[in-house]
Amino acid sequence: MKLRLDISEPTPKAWIEAVLADFPTFLQDHANNERKVSSVAMSFVAKYPDRVEIIDELIETAIEELEHFREAYQLMHKRGIKLTHEIEEDLYMKELIALARNGRDERFLDRLIIASLVECRGAERFKLVYEHIEDTEFKTFYHKLWASEAKHSEVYVKLALNYFSESIVYQRLKELTDAEAKIMLKQPFTAKMH
Question: Which terminus of the chain has a lower count of CB atoms within 10 Å, N or C?
Answer without folding.
Answer: N
